[in-house]
Amino acid sequence: MASTTVKFSATLSKTDPISVPVLIVGQEKHLSSLPYSAVKCKLEPRVNEQTFKSALSVLNPCPTDTCPLFLNTATLAAISNNHSRHNSSAQPHMLTKLINLNSAGYNECIVIVCERKDMFASGCAAARAFYDYCRKTKIYVGKLKEQKKSTVTVTVEFLIIPDSNGDNKVEKEEIATLERIANAIKMTARIVDTPCNDMNVNHFLDARADLNINPTIISGEELKKKGLGGIYGVGKASSIGPALAVLSYTPHGATETIAWVGKGIVYDTGGLSIKGKTAMPGMKRDCAGAAAILGAFHAIVKSSFKQNLHAVFCLAENSVGPDSTRPDDIHTLYSGRTVEINNTDAEGRLVLSDGVVYASRDLNAKVILDMATLTGAQAISTGKYHAAVMSNSEQWEKNVVSAGLISGDLTFPIVYCPELHFCEFSSSVADMKNSVADRSNATSSCAGLFIAAHLGFDTTNQWIHVDIAGPSHYGERATGYGVALLTALFAKYTNDLLLQNVSKHIE
Length: 507
Description:
This protein is α/β, with parallel strands linked by helices.
């Protein structure tokens, strides 16, 4: 099997399509004004100027179109100029699709023609087109063997359209940051694509090894002793116990404390409220929130982050067994509030509630963001491409939407109205139930409100909730969603040149 290394460059190198396949891709308006001289170093001697111009003239993206320039090793691809206000101007989903469909599958070069403001989203989109996890086999001389591991190098080169001042310069430092974020996206996707027999709670904890940060880990029966009844109750039936793990980055001179809390359900059977045979496949992806936070943490702490940052992972396997939580059981969560379980498949909100309270109480975080594949209803509410965001802060809600547009990890707000919706969790024997009474009443919002209730609706914390159930995967593959969003959203807290430029576009 091949893993893909994605490298970036701000200049075009000279290559021959015979030995290094090339895809030149961009919006139609940028390609149509592109002189042959700007790309001839990627095409000569196989493609002349006349052929290049002829290809440009027949491109009709609606929303995309491609034209081969030389055999299947030189291709021109165009994206429509039109996009709505709820889409990134880089049109990253179309870009990922074009790269994926036209990839040669071996060492190759992709030339992205774009404006400077779209470089960040475009680079992240390119990274999403390549997958690392694979366990396919191949027959060798009549015997079935696992494919040998190999590494494919994809070089992404940017051709930046000059702005109104004629500036199209990109610094090496910016390219290095983009490469770091792209690798984090691919790492996140690899974790999410990996099945639970290779990515259980213990394996997930090992994935942070190269950070050289000693984690705080509370696991197994210790969770129960410390009152973390949400995480413990969800994971106690598994042969590998649940855990709350924290990675803490505390630079000298920090004045603020931020916490990212991720849902890390490494597999979700639904518990005793077991999922059906068509709903359960794919539930290895229920750790996508925690995986995104791990990837973003990897990327941003290496980008001169200035404030205290804690990554909190709520890890468990929601299994069926003699120790499974039963519907009607009542658990006491870390907040001290009691929860009557009426649906063991509504487990993500239980682990996250413990996580956000731990972030507030034990880590003294004032800005708390949780990210999770929380509800199937999210894809109904905001679709497969836009994560659902809700917050007790109007400004943070706006910031998340802006960060989605500049990063390509799109988001859209859902209703935050606890006075109308939290009554859905009413219980006659506990402080609340864990699943709603009316499943047609803003269920994604209600799920978020359950988490907020454990912080308290009158909390002074600034709380942001991001439900990524839809955009965390495309078909059977993970997208690495969340890494680009978080690095863009918190870009202002870094001294990194690329992220500082990104932060200028965040409200």
